[in-house]
C-alpha cells in the first residue's frame, strides 16, 4: 500500500534532488539533476521541472497528495519565493507558484533547508521523541531550525532557528550577512580552515586546506588545528546555550560536513556548553550528531509538507 505519498524536493547550489516518500519515511522513487546555478532563473526552473517530471512518470505518482520543498535560502514561505545565495538567477523567484503549476495544483509547502533538516531529524533522526529541539547544519554555512511544543516551528517566512546569524562575539569579524561576530563567521567549515591557516597551521604535501583536512590534523593532535575547532565549538556552544535559554530546547542536533569531524568537535562543544548553559532549566541539554544523513533534506521536505506525517510524529511523542 502506498497511500498518501509526498513528493519532496531538496534544492541546493550543487544538485536538485527529488523523491516520493511514504508515511514511514521510506524513499520509494528518486530523481536528481545538477543545479545549473550559473544560469538564468528559468534554466534552473527547467531542472526542477525535469526532476518533477521524472517523479511524475512513476505509477506511484497517482498517490501523491502534496509537494514539500526544502531550499537553500533565504526563502520567504509566506510569499512562496526563494533567493538562494548560491543560485544568483533566483532572486524573489516564485518557486511555489511554479512548482504548483508543474504538479497540477497539488498543495506545495516551502521551507528553508535548515528547517527541512530539522523536520527530518524530528521525524526520523536524533530529535525523535523530543518536543523541543534545535537542529543545526554546520557546513559551508551554519543553518538551523526549531521544534517547539512537539511541532516544527518554521516561523512566518520559514527561517526561524537560523542560529548561524546569532552574534556570539560583539567585537568579532564582520559577517557577509552584515552582522558582526556571527556563529557562522567562526564555526562554518571555511572559517574553521581560515582561522587555522591564519594562526599558523600548514597543510600536508597535498596542499589541502579544507576543514576536513584541519579536522584530520586535529585528530592527529596538531595544536593549532585543535585550537581552531575549539574556537568553533565555543561559538556553537554560545549560540546553542542562547537558544536554549530563550525557548527551552532539550536537545541540540548537529549535522553537516563539520559534524563529521566527530570528537574533535563534539568533545570541546560539550565542555564549552557546560560553561554557557548554566541555568537550572538548560543544564541537562543534550547534544547529539544528526542521524538522517544525506537524505535529510528530502525527508524533511516531505515531513514539512505533510500534516499527516507531522501528526504521526506528534502522536508518537504524546503516546
Structure report:
With 319 residues, the protein is α/β, with parallel strands linked by helices. It has two domains: 5-111, 2-Layer Sandwich (Nucleotidyltransferase, domain 5), CATH 3.30.420.40; 126-290, ATPase, nucleotide binding domain (Nucleotidyltransferase, domain 5, 2-Layer Sandwich), CATH 3.30.420.40. Helix content is 38%, strand content 20%. The protein contains ten helices and twelve strands. The protein has helices at 41-56, 95-102, 113-124, 183-187, 189-198, 211-219, 223-247, 263-276, 296-305, 307-318, and strands spanning 5-11, 15-21, 27-34, 64-71, 75-76, 81-82, 108-112, 133-138, 142-148, 151-152, 251-255, 286-289. The strands form three sheets. Strands 3-2-1-4-7 form a five-stranded mixed sheet, sandwiched between helices. A hairpin with a 4-residue loop joins strand 5 (75-76) and strand 6. The model is unreliable at 311-319 (pLDDT under 50).
Amino acid at each position: 500500500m502506498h497511500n498518501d505519498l509526498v513528493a519532496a524536493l531538496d534544492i541546493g547550489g550543487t544538485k536538485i534532488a527529488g523523491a516520493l516518500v511514504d508515511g514511514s519515511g521510506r524513499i520509494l522513487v528518486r530523481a536528481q539533476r545538477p543545479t545549473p546555478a550559473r544560469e538564468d532563473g528559468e534554466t534552473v526552473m527547467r531542472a526542477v521541472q525535469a526532476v518533477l517530471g521524472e517523479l511524475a512518470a512513476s505509477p506511484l505518482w497517482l498517490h501523491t497528495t502534496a509537494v514539500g520543498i526544502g531550499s537553500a535560502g533565504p526563502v520567504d514561505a509566506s510569499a512562496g519565493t526563494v533567493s538562494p545565495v548560491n543560485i544568483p538567477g533566483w532572486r524573489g523567484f516564485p518557486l511555489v507558484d511554479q512548482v504548483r503549476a508543474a504538479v497540477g495544483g497539488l498543495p506545495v509547502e516551502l521551507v528553508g533547508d535548515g528547517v527541512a533538516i530539522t523536520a527530518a531529524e524530528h521525524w526520523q533522526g536524533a530529535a525523535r521523541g523530543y518536543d523541543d529541539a534545535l537542529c543545526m547544519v554546520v557546513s559551508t554555512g551554519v543553518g538551523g531550525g526549531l521544534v517547539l511544543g512537539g511541532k516544527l516551528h518554521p516561523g512566518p517566512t520559514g527561517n526561524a532557528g537560523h542560529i548561524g546569524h546569532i552574534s556570539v562575539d560583539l567585537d568579532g569579524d564582520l559577517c557577509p550577512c552584515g552582522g558582526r561576530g556571527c556563529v557562522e563567521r567562526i564555526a562554518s567549515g571555511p572559517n574553521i580552515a581560515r582561522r587555522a591557516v591564519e594562526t599558523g597551521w600548514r597543510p600536508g604535501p597535498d596542499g589541502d586546506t579544507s576543514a576536513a583536512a584541519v579536522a584530520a590534523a586535529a585528530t592527529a593532535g596538531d595544536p593549532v588545528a585543535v585550537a581552531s575547532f575549539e574556537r568553533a565549538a565555543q561559538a556553537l556552544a554560545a549560540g546553542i546555550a542562547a537558544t536554549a535559554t530563550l525557548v527551552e530546547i532539550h536537545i541540540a542536533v548537529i549535522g553537516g560536513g563539520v559534524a563529521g569531524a566527530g570528537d574533535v568537535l563534539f568533545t570541546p562543544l560539550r565542555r564549552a556548553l557546560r560553561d554557557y548553559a548554566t541555568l537550572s532549566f538548560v543544564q541537562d541539554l543534550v547534544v547529539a550528531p544528526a542521524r538522517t544523513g544525506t537524505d535529510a533534506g528530502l525527508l524533511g521536505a516531505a515531513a514539512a509538507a505533510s500534516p499527516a506525517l507531522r501528526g504521526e510524529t506528534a502522536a508518537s511523542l504524546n503516546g
